[in-house]
């Protein structure tokens, strides 16, 4: 899969690339609604004998356009994971466009000329609510006018799940509520985060539940405090396990630093310095302060039995 990074004004001219069918959008989350747009572009490209492409933006437009947003954004699917998923889908080419103030100031006609016609794109596929150009004044209704007969378009209507519109905003709210099974049903896969294993207090080893203490990459949304059924990817292997997001109240009275720890079932080895990917399947319970280590150990054994049973039957 080719990745072409573009910043306005780019120097590419017509016929630089083979004719393509492009799916365009921010695609944060790559949820089922986004997948429908991208799959439609792939199908049309196959029918027309053209390359399939995705055009997306970095950083997310809201970082530039919304003055009340923080300078960084917590993503459902950060850019590196997005690229990985697009490659798995079999997309031929990704146009990665730098979103900045100059790009946001383009007139709709300028955007179409630069980023569609100028890149030899012959068919655009987008969601019904996609907009382009200064203040979003261009949309799928105006595209035929701006295209001047040089490209065609396909509009994908909203994708529903049990009478609910699938959207990144809805998925974010579910993530912050810990509703991981619902999130997975909208993404089409479990929510996943990446992080590096760092030195912890090693207390888990002394009670029979060694954990990997993760430094989670800042671009991810960390699930709320609690215990979860997870899968952990180590290299190319997956292990079932349980994760704890919280402040370890049994051992620390006034802990301020949120930690993410994972206990991998049936794993033996040293994980320090390894990058792990954690797939969040189910919220199990809230974090509890126990009256001593024995009570904590008893609960952890119950958690493990419950989580093993969950994976056995799912």
From TrEMBL:
It is an enzyme of class 2 (transferase). Its EC number is 2.7.1.26, 2.7.7.2. The keyword Lyase does not apply. It catalyses: riboflavin + ATP = FMN + ADP + H(+); FMN + ATP + H(+) = FAD + diphosphate. Keywords: ATP-binding, FAD, Flavoprotein, FMN, Kinase, Multifunctional enzyme, Nucleotide-binding, Nucleotidyltransferase, Transferase. CDD domains: FAD_synthetase_N. It comes from the Bacteria. GO terms for biological process: FAD biosynthetic process; FMN biosynthetic process; riboflavin biosynthetic process. Pfam families: FAD_syn, Flavokinase. The keyword Transferase applies. Pathway: Cofactor biosynthesis; FMN biosynthesis; FMN from riboflavin (ATP route): step 1/1; Cofactor biosynthesis; FAD biosynthesis; FAD from FMN: step 1/1. One of its GO terms (molecular function) is ATP binding. Residues 186-312 form the Riboflavin kinase domain. Belongs to the ribF family. This is Riboflavin biosynthesis protein. It comes from Pontibacillus litoralis JSM 072002.
């Amino acid at each position: 899969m080719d990745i072409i990074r573009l910043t306005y004004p780019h120097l590419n001219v017509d016929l630089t690339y083979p004719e393509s069918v492009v799916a365009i959008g921010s695609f944060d989350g790559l949820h089922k609604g986004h997948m429908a747009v991208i799959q439609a572009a792939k199908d049309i490209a196959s029918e027309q004998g053209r390359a399939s492409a995705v055009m997306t933006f970095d950083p997310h437009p809201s970082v530039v356009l919304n003055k009340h947003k923080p300078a960084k954004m917590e993503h459902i699917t950060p850019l590196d994971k997005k690229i990985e998923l697009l490659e798995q889908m079999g997309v031929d080419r990704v146009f990665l466009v730098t979103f900045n103030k100059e790009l946001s100031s383009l007139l709709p006609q300028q955007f179409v000329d630069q980023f569609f016609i100028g890149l030899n794109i012959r068919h655009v596929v987008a969601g019904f609510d996609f907009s382009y150009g200064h203040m979003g004044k261009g949309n799928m209704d105006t595209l035929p006018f701006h295209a001047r007969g040089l490209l065609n378009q396909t509009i994908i209507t909203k994708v529903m799940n049990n009478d609910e519109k699938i959207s990144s905003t809805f998925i974010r709210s579910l993530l912050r509520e810990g509703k991981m099974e619902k999130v997975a049903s909208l993404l089409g896969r479990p929510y996943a985060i990446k992080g590096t294993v760092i030195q912890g207090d090693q207390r888990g080893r002394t009670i029979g539940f060694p954990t990997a203490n993760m430094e989670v990459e800042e671009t991810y949304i960390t699930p709320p405090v609690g215990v979860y059924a997870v899968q952990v990817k180590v290299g190319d292997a997956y292990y079932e396990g349980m994760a704890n997001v919280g402040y370890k109240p049994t051992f620390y009275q006034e802990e301020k630093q949120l930690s993410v720890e994972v206990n991998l079932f049936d794993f033996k080895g040293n994980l320090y310095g390894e990058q792990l990917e954690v797939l969040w399947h189910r919220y199990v319970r809230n974090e509890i302060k126990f009256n001593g280590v024995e009570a904590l150990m008893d609960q952890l054994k119950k958690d493990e039995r419950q989580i093993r049973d969950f994976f056995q039957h799912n």
